[in-house]
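Forgive a beginner's question, but would it be possible to get a protein, spelled out as residues, together with the matching structure tokens, please?
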Amino acid sequence: MAVKNWFNDGILRSIVRKAGQLASTKLLGGIIGLLGLVCTGRGLSADLFGTVMLIHAYALGASALTKSQSWQMIIRYGAPALTQGNTLPARLAIRFACAVDAVAGIIGMIGAILALFFFGTKFGVRQEHIPLAIAYCTLIPTMSCATPAGVLRLLDRFDLLSIQQIATPLMRSFGAVTAWTLGLGMPAYLLSWYIADLAGDLVLWAMAFIVLDHHRMLDAMRPSLFDAPRRLPKVWSFIWTTNLNTTLAVGKEPISNVIVGGMLGPAAVGVYKIATSVINSATKPATLMEKGFYPEIMRLDPHSTRPWKLALKTGFLAGCIGLAVALAIMLLGHPVVSLFGKKYRESASLLIMMAPALVITLSAFPMESLLYMSGRPKALFYSHIVGTGAYIAALVYMTRHFGLYGAGAAFIVGPLLLSLCSLIPTLYCFFNRRSIILPTPVQLAADDAEMEEEALAES
């Protein structure tokens, strides 16, 4: 009865509703994407399939290392001000996010291409496939952009976000099915993945432009590296810290694929990638709660207990979903993996070995948002350093000594240590919540007022 009464909380209902919107299409996208993955796996040899996965993972890893996660900055500075009817901080944050994303994407692309020239074969990419990997790295600038997603979350357009989630897996599966039907080679499969990723990113940008135009804020898409730092307090510090946090968090999966490929070869990457892809697809419906959770708590008073209680409720619900998914994986892992063919049957054992990590990861997700709300992103950064460092060390050691099964066992180490390390500063912030400093809204000076009037006139 107590859990049932939780849903009398309108904010929790809003979080669950938004997660449901995203989950409905994410689940559909996951099923459609799984079709594309199955066709790619069946249409290519284990070695070539692993090469496609490795090139894609390399580009994802490079974008993760430079991705600014500017959407969190947009929410932190834009959401509190918008509740007061002040659109200027949101405009400044979006302009700054556009500029940061552009710079980060270009740097990531250049760095990834240079690294392939000198170390491509050490990453597991064969010499004859390096030109294809270099061409694929031109996706990194769009992969690195978090601005359009931040705009849609800020303006509460989760319905559009849910629709966009189908674009990439639909295009990817269409391309993979076409290549499989026509008996095309590996470059055709890689091209289908390239086109799908690019199309999905362009759809997201188009939606952000349309929504901003509707809110008479289209001028916010003019990139600027200088306006926001002069008017939004500590924005550079926030963007750098969140960038490092997300780089460590998001970069683990593609980097682990590269490590496994470098130590065990492309075929092993294919087996490992299938296991991690199925787990990631299974966790999407629950992890989508985080997308609605952070904007909602940024509109609440952190000095009260309300956002903290909300975190407990959402963490508990997500943990329950994680437990159900883990049990389902243990029961259905072998039938699902059998779709890829007998040559990938090792993936089923990896799936079962990795499944407990779902419960840890999903139940602990609110702590990241709470630390951002509390103005303690550095505490989260230190937690990520410990958790990621321990995971990478365990992955290298256990993969070297136990092969793929060692990599599967190491998969649990990272989330466990990260959750334990994040719990300490989260508890500290809760017991000292009266000392939390809220982000100061932009004060409209004379030049700011003129800027606001010009922006409205242009809109």
